[in-house]
Amino acid sequence: MAEQPIIDFWLSLGSTYTYLAVMRADDVASQNGVTLRWRPFSVRKIMQAMDNRFLAGKPEKYAYMWADIARQAAFYGIPANVPVPHPITEFDLAHRVAILGMREGWGIDFIKDSFRRWYEFRREPGSEPNLSDTLHTLGLDPAAVRAAADAPDIATTLEAETAEARALGIFGAPTFVVGGKELFWGNDRLEHAINWAKTGRIG
């Protein structure tokens, strides 16, 4: 039996549109016989290096984004109590915990639940009470996890992942990468990435 195609799913906690991808990506991939490799990285660091201020000082674009996310969430049947707090405060901590979780096997569940609490209850990923509530849900001790996430090797891994993302040409999240070179940016490109991984075409 042929192995399933693998797609790297580059994501950032705190990325608004990533919520839509996080909540549906596994189901879509499973239905299409594709494996996703979840890759948390700091899109904020890449955007800062690019001098990309995203929505700062752009109220019209902000308003559109929330309306657009609400429409898409309704289409997918995903709760979205928008607007949510943005940008999030504990961005780096959220990502260090996610990196730790990916290493220990609970990272995907942490990411999904953190995003869910952000969009259902407007509680920021990485901040309290989102962080402790999510970790408790996973049967983890928040104090122990935070201490482990502060280890230098976790920060080094996050930096390395972010550097790899930038080397690939990634500039935003979510981004799906096929074969280590074909980039598909945005939640609505997930199906295109899957088709490309299976057939070399987007349709």
In short:
This protein is of the alpha+beta class and 203 residues long. It contains 9 helices and 4 strands. Helix 4 packs across helix 7 and helix 4 packs across helix 8 (152-168).
Tell me about this structure.
The structure is a single chain. By secondary structure, the chain is α+β, with helices and mostly antiparallel strands. The protein has one domain (6-199): Glutaredoxin, CATH 3.40.30.10. Helices cover 55% and strands 10% of the residues. The protein has helices spanning 18-31, 43-49, 59-76, 91-104, 107-121, 130-137, 142-149, 152-168, 190-199; strands spanning 6-11, 35-40, 175-178, 182-185. Strands 2-1-3-4 form a four-stranded mixed beta sheet, sandwiched between helices. Strand 1 (6-11), helix 1 (18-31) and strand 2 (35-40) form a beta-alpha-beta unit. The longest helix is centred in the first third of the chain and has 18 residues, at 59-76. The chain is globular.
Note the topology.
Elements: E1 6-11, H1 18-31, E2 35-40, H2 43-49, H3 59-76, H4 91-104, H5 107-121, H6 130-137, H7 142-149, H8 152-168, E3 175-178, E4 182-185, H9 190-199
Parallel strand pairs: 1-2
Antiparallel strand pairs: 1-3, 3-4
Helix pairs in contact: 4-5, 4-7, 4-8, 5-6
What descriptive keywords fit this protein?
9 helices, alpha+beta, Glutaredoxin, 203 residues, 4 strands, 4-stranded mixed beta sheet
